[in-house]
Every structure is written in C-alpha cells, then in structure tokens.
Amino acid sequence: xxxxxxxxxxxxxxxxxxxxxxxxxxxxxxxxxxxxxxxxxxxxxxxxxxxxxxxxxxxxxxxxxxxxxxxxxxxxxxxxxxxxxxxxxxxxxxxxxxxxxxxxxxxxxxxxxxxxxxxxxxxxxxxxxxxxxxxxxxxxxxxxxxxxxxxxxxxxxxxxxxxxxxxxxxxxxxxxxxxxxxxxxxxxxxxxxxxxxxxxxxxxxxxxxxxxxxxxxxxxxxxxxxxxxxxxxxxxxxxxxxxxxxxxxxxxxxxxxxxxxxxxxxxxxxxxxxxxxxxxxxxxxxxxxxxxxxxxxxxxxxxxxxxxxxxxxxxxxxxxxxxxxxxxxxxxxxxxxxxxxxxxxxxxxxxxxxxxxxxxxxxxxxxxxxxxxxxxxx
Length: 378
Known about the structure:
Elements lengths: L6 E5 L6 H9 L12 E6 L9 E3 L2 E11 L3 H19 L5 H15 L5 E11 L4 E4 L4 H14 L5 E3 L6 H11 L6 E11 L6 E4 L6 H9 L2 E10 L3 E6 L4 E6 L1 H6 L7 H26 L23 H14 L4 H8 L3 H13 L22
Protein name: Recombination-associated protein RdgC
Function: May be involved in recombination.
Organism: Pusillimonas noertemannii
C-alpha cells in the first residue's frame, strides 16, 4: 500500500466529488492493447470492483496503467536486415535510406501482433483536505503521464509544482554543516554532494555518516548536498533530493506495530492501510515544507489556464522554456513547470511547440523525448 516515491504537487482548488472524478476517469479507462498498437494508457480501478476512485474521508486514490508491447529495436533491425538482403538480391542494389525506413516499418507491423506486452500501474493520491496531489513515481516521465491524463479529464487542471522558500539543496547542505536536522527530523547515513559546475562531479556516502570537516571541504570545493537520507518523527524514513522529490519512503517499526490488526477482511485492511499512509505522509509533507521555510507563493494559478485559452505562447515565455530544456538536458513538462513556476497546461503547450519546431522529438513509447540538438536554436 505505501507509496515508495513521492512527487508532490499543490492543488490550487478542488471541487470535484469522488463520484464526479470517477465518472471522468472512466471515460479514459485503460483498454487492452490492440494487436497493431505499440502502447495503451488509461485509468484502472485501484481495487478491483470498487470503481475508478477509492475514496475515504477526503482522501482519493487513483491508478493509471501504461501497457507497452515488448519489441526490442535489435529484433526489428535483425529482421529488417534480412529482408533488405533479399530485396538487394532481387533488385540488384542495396535499399536506400528511405526504403530501409519503409522496410523497418513493415517489419514492425508484422511483428507487433506476435509481441508480448507488459504494463505498470502508477498510483496517485489526492488529499482534498490539505490540497495535495501526490504521485508514486520515481521519475518525471511517469508523473508527467499521470498529470497529462488528469489534465485531459479535468479542465481547468488546478495543479502546480510545490514551491518552498528555501532551496532543498541549500537547506540540506546547511543541515550537514551544522550537523543538525530541523525539528522532528534526524539525519541518516546516506548522502550525496554534487558540484555546481558543469562537471557535476559527485561524492556519495552510502550507509556511512559524513564528518563535518569533510562536508566543509566539499562545500569549499563548490559542492552542495543533492540527496540526503532523513527520518521523520521516528516514524518514516526517506531520501530527499534537490528537486524536492521524496524517495525510498519506508514506514518504520512503530507504524507497523500500530497497524490495525482487527481488520476482518481485505477491504477493511486496505482501508486501514490507506488511512494510516495518507495521515502519516500528509503530516510528513507539512513538516518538510515547514523545515524548508514554508510554501512559496507563485503568481501563476493553474486554474486560470483552460483548454480554451491554449494558443500560441508568447515568444519570451516560450524561449525561457526552451532554455530550461536545453540547459538541463531534460525535455520534461514538470521540469519546465518547476523552473518557470507556471501551470501544467502552459508547460505542456511549450513542449508541444518545441516538438513542432524540431527542438525535441515526439514522445517515445517509454515516455521519453530526445533533445534534437542539431535543430535547436542557437
């Protein structure tokens, strides 16, 4: 039940009931992947037979399934190479680039119906009381999938990244230098310090505490803490990153001992686990935000951006988004959001325009986009 990784977003407002949300998600329910399809993405029931939203005391649980055919490029290339040799013998010369592309497309179409498929489910938790959207995802690619599907179901989509007053990297570095964590937290043994220069040289300490003198030497050399293992209230351990991602979330023994052992069946146990998880994580997030100086207000409420308002972006905001992608070498909606403090839909349309302009590639089946440096503006 417990989420292992937390991507935390702020809901500017939330007016949908659980039934209304479930009705919208059902319209984009996951469908089994077709014989000629490479991938299929849609919503599934968090618990079989209980609808598309599991709701309990203002806490909503939803789940997105991404199914993909397993067709390695190496297999396509091998079969295409064999076909190309046959064609060469028939026509007397090697197939050109355009013909090879057509051969590969034909091979892909022939192999797709025979390919196996695999799927993964990404869960998201909506805290309607504290206005959090939390996605159990280890990467921006997976969280962007959930955000994108939610944006299609909810318009306007009232979500922005979580912004705090103090940079997580600066705060974690200070905690190490002072050898003192903020109230209700303790520092564990895993940490990483990375250079702020282009080299991004990094020093990692695994299951080993870092000495204060070593911290100061690394900081003087231009490094700052980018990952730090922490424990909150002796109840939950986790790793905090410079991007405010919460990874490797683990409930400690005190929580396992307090789990409701009186549950009569699987449904009651599921509800008990869900209540425990959401209650503890909501308090953890609040404590962490406070430790980082509190939440930082932004000037761009996500609710002001609707599907009707999406048009060609102004040149200056668009160029800023391009700079974010090129400088960070990540073609991610969430990265653009976080750097520019804008809503999801606005960041998404910037990335779509970059695709049209040849700056980034179309989204691949695994969710990634390639940065096309050759076509990027100077």
